[in-house]
Amino acid sequence: MMLRAIFVALSEGVRWSSLSKIGNSRIATITIFAPIIGYLVVFNSTLSEYVALVSPFGTEPIGINAIDYLHGKRLYFLYLGVLGVGLATALYAALAPEPIKTSASAVDYVRHMSDLNTPNIVRDSFLSTISLYRRYNNEEQSYPMFQGGSLSSLDRVSSALHPFIRSMFGGTDTDIDILEHDAPDYGDESRESLVTGSGNVRTDSIMEILQSGRSIDRPFQYEFLNEVVKNPKDVFFLEYISLDYSEFARRLTVAAVYAVGFTLLLVPTITTLGIIFRSW
C-alpha cells in the first residue's frame, strides 16, 4: 500500500500537462540541438581550456577538494545537463498525446475543439476515452502493485467519467439485450439489468456494451451516443483528462530524464556559490 501511495502521488504530480510546461517551451525545444552545441563549444579545445582556467575572481588555482574538481568540469556538466533536457524534450515530443502538446489545459482543449464540434468527432472522442479507460484498468489491475485502480486512470478520471455515463443513461429509454455474462445477476436481458437493486447504474457494463460488436446492441449504442453528442464540452474535457493521466511509465521516464538534466545544470551554479562562500 505504501508503494502504491508513492506511485499515485507521482502519477498525480507528473501529468502530461505538467510536463508540457517544459516540453512545449521554446527554450526546451532548442536543447534538442545539444549534441551540435557540444561539438562546437564543449569540445573546442581552446574554449575548454579558457573556461577551465577562468573563475569569477580571476585565475583559479587548481584545488584538490570536490568543489574545485567539479567546478573545473562545469562546462561538461553544462553540456550533459543541456543534453539531458534535450533528450527529455525529444521523448516528450514523441510520447505525449497530441491534445496535450497543442493545449495547455482542459479548458484550452475544449475551447479549441469547439471549432471542430461535429457529431462524429464528439462520438469518436467519447468512444476513444472509454476505450483508453477500460484498457488501462484491465491491464494494470492485473499486477498486485496496482490493486485498487490504474495509475493511468486515477480517481479524478473515474469521478468524472462514471457520473457522465450515468447522466447519459438517464436520457435513454431503449430496451437492450445485455451481453452474455457468467455472473448470475446478469440473467435478466433488459435495460433494468444495467441498474442494481439499490438503483446504481452499472457504468462499467454500459462501457462494455458501447464497445460491443453485436448488432443487437446497436439500438442502445445509437441512442446513448446521440445523448453523448449533445454534450461536446463534457466529452472533450473527459478526453483531455484521460489522456493527461495516460501512460504512467512514459510520463515517469520523461520526468526522470528532465530531473537528471536539470540536476546536472545546477552543478556549475552550486560549485560557483561554494567558491564564493569559501572566498569570504
* Low-confidence runs: 56-63, 177-189
Which structural category fits the helices and strands? mainly alpha
Subunit arrangement of the protein:
single chain
Number of strand segments: 2
Order of helix and strand elements from N to C terminus: HHHHHEEHHHHHHHHHH
Q: Helical residue percent?
A: 55-70%
Number of helices: 15
Question: Which shape, going by the Cα principal axes?
Answer: elongated
Strand content: under 5%
Provide mean pLDDT, rounded: 78
How can the largest sheet be summarized?
2 strands, antiparallel
- Walk across the major sheet and give the strand order: 1-2
Rg, rounded, reads 27 Å
How far is the N terminus from the C terminus?
Answer: 50 Å
Report on the structure:
The chain is mostly helical. It has 15 helices and two strands. Residues 56-63 and 177-189 have low confidence and may be disordered.
Question: How do the strands and helices of this protein lay out in sequence?
Answer:
Elements: H1 2-13, H2 16-23, H3 26-30, H4 34-42, H5 45-53, E1 54-55, E2 58-59, H6 66-72, H7 74-95, H8 98-102, H9 106-113, H10 119-140, H11 155-170, H12 203-210, H13 218-228, H14 232-244, H15 248-279
Antiparallel strand pairs: 1-2
Outline:
By secondary structure, this protein is mainly alpha-helical. It has helices at residues 2-13, 16-23, 26-30, 34-42, 45-53, 66-72, 74-95, 98-102, 106-113, 119-140, 155-170, 203-210, 218-228, 232-244, 248-279, and strands spanning 54-55, 58-59.
